Amino acid sequence: MRFYKGQPDMSRIGKKPIVIPNGVSVDLSGEMITVKGPLGTLQYKLQDAINVVIDNNVINIAKKDEQSKDKKVNALWGLTRALIHNMVVGVSSGFEKNLEIVGVGYRATQKSNDVEFQLGYSHSILFSPPAGIKVEVVEPTKLKVKGVDKQLVGQVAANIRKLRPPEPYKGKGIRYKDEQIRRKAGKTGK
Fold first, then answer.
1. What is the CA radius of gyration of the chain?
2. What is the pLDDT of residue 63?
3. Among the four residues 13, 26, 130, 136, which has the most C-beta atoms within 10 Å?
4. Domain boundary among 33, 57, 92
């Protein structure tokens, strides 16, 4: 393992080219990049220090000033590449988060676009997803959150999980699929 005195001048993520799949079109007009695909359309406003070049179904991202050793510019370079890649993947195949409901009597039912939760409270909770996100009840205890925007899918899944976070004693609540809950021992009798 090598240790550098200064910050290296390259972003390993930023250097990778993005291949545009069939059925996806990318349009660059000024500072706005628009990605259209079979599942929808996403837009992103580019930062001033980043340059995007599209040719032969390949997107390359670079810094406008190649000699710049500014840490913020290097971070923006990799961030911009990751965001544009997520846009291309989102409009072509979409993103999905799976949630599980654990607990006796805890369940979810589909009400057109909304989902009604019974989570052990004295009332039921009606959850309405934002535009562009679909919440699907696979089973009464299993949910799928789908959409084209990766950040929005993750945020909606986190908001659903926040309705009843898993508790550490019996593990009851809403959790991500394959999420490990650290369990605690309860009180022990004499």
1. 22
2. 85
3. 26
4. 92
| 49: its two tokens | 């220090």
Tokens of 161: 């999980």
131: containing domain:
95-176
pLDDT, position 12: 80
Q: If you write DSSP's letter for every residue of 152-183 in order, what string do you get?
A: HHHHHHHHHHHHSPPPTTT--EEEETTPPPPP
Is residue 132 within 8 Å of residue 152, measured between CB atoms? yes
Q: What are phi and psi of 100, to 5 degrees?
A: -125, 145
CATH of the domain at 117: 3.90.930.12
CA distances from 25 to 29, 61, 81, 83, 87 (A): 13, 17, 17, 16, 11
Token output for 115? 């989902």
* Same-domain check for residues 81 and 125: no
Q: What is the pLDDT of residues 29-38, one digit of tens each?
A: 988 999 999 9
Residue 167 and residue 117: Cα distance in Å, rounded? 17
Q: 186 in a domain, yes or no?
A: no
N-terminal to C-terminal alpha carbon distance within the chain: 54
